Amino acid sequence: MVDQAEAKIVQEVFTRYANKESVTAILNDLNVREMKTKRWHTRTGKLKGGKAFNRNAIYTLLKNRVYLGEVFYGDTWQEGAHESIVDRDLWSKVAALLELRSRRGETRAPSDEGSIFMLRGVMFGSDGRAMSPWLSSAYKGRKYAYYIPQKEIAEGAGASGLPRLQAANLNDQVWLSLRQLLSTPEQLLAHLPKPLIESPEFDLSLVVKRLINLEGLSEELFPVHQKRLVTQLIDRVTVHADRLDIDFSLEGLMDLILELLADRPELVRTYRQLYSLARSHGL
């Protein structure tokens, strides 16, 4: 049976994205209204979901064929017995926009501003509003880059109770946190679906080795490649008055693992199937 409250949110997100509203705008509105992600129980009875939306949750929702009335069986999506929430025309329109976004992301030339604001789109205040990139006018040939709470832009300095953050310092802090996790990736991998990591076909030692090797090379990466890695793995950075909370993207982590195993196509195929199956069951 369709959960009408969930269906209403899903239809709203699909419709707004199809109308070319930005993910940031959709996200800000959902969080201001205190909308939450779908809640469900795993096979072991553990309650999942029910959290504030983030960018990864939005994109995962927009790509979830379950809402089209399909189920993942074997290694393909097939027509399911449950009622669809999104009609095929709306799905196709959203899928086309996502594909266009993907192609633009691959071909867009990097810029200095893009590199300094590598966390654009994932920075949020504890009030749920996005932190806006802000570049000062040049002073003695130098520009200063910050993330500023949107409430302060609207109401003035100090209105949010949150700090303005220097983009360069923030990049360094997030990059360091990311490198620390990659150097001891077992903690990060433990968040992947259990049907994947507990499968006898999942070579944990190989995956750990590849991630550690990547961390060892991270200092040699050009800024554009560092930005890609951060964009891939960082799902959300929440700014509080006295701390930062960094959430990592499991979808991004899985994509990275598959990239690092490109020389083992049989593992890539198996891991992708196991991961897709687990996600289709809400794990």
Automatic annotation (TrEMBL):
<comment type="similarity">
    <text>Belongs to the site-specific recombinase resolvase family.</text>
</comment>
<dbReference type="GO" id="GO:0003677">
    <property type="term" value="F:DNA binding"/>
</dbReference>
<dbReference type="GO" id="GO:0000150">
    <property type="term" value="F:DNA strand exchange activity"/>
</dbReference>
<dbReference type="InterPro" id="IPR011109">
    <property type="entry name" value="DNA_bind_recombinase_dom"/>
</dbReference>
<dbReference type="Pfam" id="PF07508">
    <property type="entry name" value="Recombinase"/>
</dbReference>
<dbReference type="InterPro" id="IPR050639">
    <property type="entry name" value="SSR_resolvase"/>
</dbReference>
<protein>
    <submittedName>
        <fullName>Recombinase family protein</fullName>
    </submittedName>
</protein>
<dbReference type="InterPro" id="IPR038109">
    <property type="entry name" value="DNA_bind_recomb_sf"/>
</dbReference>
<feature type="domain" description="Recombinase">
    <location>
        <begin position="1"/>
        <end position="104"/>
    </location>
</feature>
